[in-house]
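To assess whether the prediction recovers the assembly geometry, we first specified each molecular entity separately, as shown.
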Amino acid sequence: MMCAPFPGGTVSTIYAVAKRAGVSTATVSRVLSRPQVVTPTTRDRVLQAIEDLSYAPNSAARNLRTLKSGKLLVTVPDISNPFFALILQGIEDAAQRAGYAVLLGDTQHNAKREERYAQMLKHKEADGLIFLGHRLPKAAAELVRTLSPRCAPIVNGCEFSPHLGVPGVHIDNAKAAAEAMDHLYALGHRRVGVVTGPLLSPLSRDRLRGTRARAAAQHAEDELIIIPGDFSIESGVTAGEELLSAANRPTAVFCFNDEMAMGVVEAARARDVRVPEELSVVGFDDIRFASHVNPPLTTIAQPMREIGESTVRMLLMILENPEIYPVPLTLPHTLVVRGSTAPPPERHFAVGG
Amino acid sequence: MMCAPFPGGTVSTIYAVAKRAGVSTATVSRVLSRPQVVTPTTRDRVLQAIEDLSYAPNSAARNLRTLKSGKLLVTVPDISNPFFALILQGIEDAAQRAGYAVLLGDTQHNAKREERYAQMLKHKEADGLIFLGHRLPKAAAELVRTLSPRCAPIVNGCEFSPHLGVPGVHIDNAKAAAEAMDHLYALGHRRVGVVTGPLLSPLSRDRLRGTRARAAAQHAEDELIIIPGDFSIESGVTAGEELLSAANRPTAVFCFNDEMAMGVVEAARARDVRVPEELSVVGFDDIRFASHVNPPLTTIAQPMREIGESTVRMLLMILENPEIYPVPLTLPHTLVVRGSTAPPPERHFAVGG
DNA sequence: GAGAAAACTGCAATCGATTGCACCGCGCGG
DNA sequence: CCGCGCGGTGCAATCGATTGCAGTTTTCTC
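The predicted structure of the complete assembly is given in tokenized form:
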């Protein structure tokens, strides 16, 4: 019935331990889960047996019995993106501190893969889901529905959208974008290029909304040149080329992430346009490299690790008490001014030069 | 005994499906695993029942019965490092194509965490382990021992070291480093700074070995200035400052990763030392940003994704047939020459100037 | 020192799926 | 017309741990 101690490499079971210690499996189990209810003498015998056999409980068995997995599923659009990597790091850290393991899904922005991973929830491979994309997979939506009126163990990171019916953690993207624009306007810019992300995502739309609102307040909405990007360096380069070759070129560019900002800087350099003297560039996220490129990027800093940690906290709360819907959490951002922004060149400085 | 179909959000079991379809659980199971052995009529009835109840097999139960988890554990020293992130992406992709899920462990270079994750193997939470650090956790080493003479399902990425007794996938670090030095020597440099990684890791030692060998061949071993770094941008900055303030400053610096190279470039800029005119800089890895910084980095490109994919293939082979020890795999690297290297300034060009 | 309460420990059911073996019925050959 | 073979299905054991309940021992209390 049970396996050999170590010969053959087979792992020992709780039965083997119980036999060796001369107790029942119940006692062994209790030694591991609630040691204080077991007599010290017995406990020591059991612990010794556990050590002798180098026993470790089989978690599939435990998961089956307890109907929990001790795992959190995290889906990320692209791990190789430093922004997501940092959030993921925060998630991993918080999860493991809470005794949970992380199941990683890199969806590569692919809806099929998102669905496939969401299925894992149904199969009870994970106790909850944190998704960083902007789509709520069908399988997850179904879960939300069937669990209602209790809260499903699903949390979003970054992409808040109230109609998803799922709580999330994010910054105030509209406000952050407005602040970035404020900074540029305060320096004296009026004609500003905006390199957005894919406009499907609420995140990009919020930023664009904030950008537009600020421009409108400045009566400079017509001076906005909006170019859609995809968050890659390359799309930043392309956008930069387009902006710089325009007849009436902008004196500043606001990019919806740092990588595209790096791309714009690169495009500027290729055309011998100096940053920030001739072109100011603002990024978003404040990834690690932002402060180490030349010139260091002015950008909106997001608390990536904290976003990750908070999603975990939120998910754990739901797991603990699904009756209570957590309220979406908005974390603070900061405008970090560095060397990539400056007043526009004199010749373009129309007002009050 | 069984759960309600959907009311209450409880999930249905194979018993519920069997009952609804009027068959035994065995048949339901077979419909899912080997559909062709079931009569089409029955099969359709079962499939219908599965759909009606939106049934999904509980994987804890399956894992328990089959003694497999369908998961691969991957431990990474630091996910926020783009180098590891890309390898991880390769791993994730290959794993999921093979029907495996990835359990992620970010060890933060911390031995305790490495141990903790390795425990998961003992608990059968994963079928195998891919570790990207340089230490083989004790628990894993133990497994290697108890499984011997069969091969343990453990594979290393990047840090090959034959005495671990574990196969791995990596590049020829010594040779790559030698090529980097070759490039510098060919340009006419003699006095070269070397910013290494932590010398505990075989990877760093191999690169250092290659570096030294090449220098020796050039009779320039005394012209090597070796400074230990830790792979962070900051340590690159520090090393750069040290090298540039030396009495007899080097005309070139070889860094064991791109981030430290970026740090050195930054330090040079801070002192108004032009790169590459006054100082050549070579990196290692060719992370995405390497080609987009100013100047674009000359570096050794590693096939990150392929390394990740290969570790998975190797692990799957072991899982399939533990009798066969895979041979460690060496993948090709490439020296990519970009704008950060050039001949040394004339005044330092001793030979044949 | 008897009786009640408290503290331990064990029995056995249970979690949900998989699978070897046995069984049934049908078709075909003799 | 009988029997063999085979495809299809079901029975029931099994994977390994957890835990409610019951039984046993110990510890008090008076």
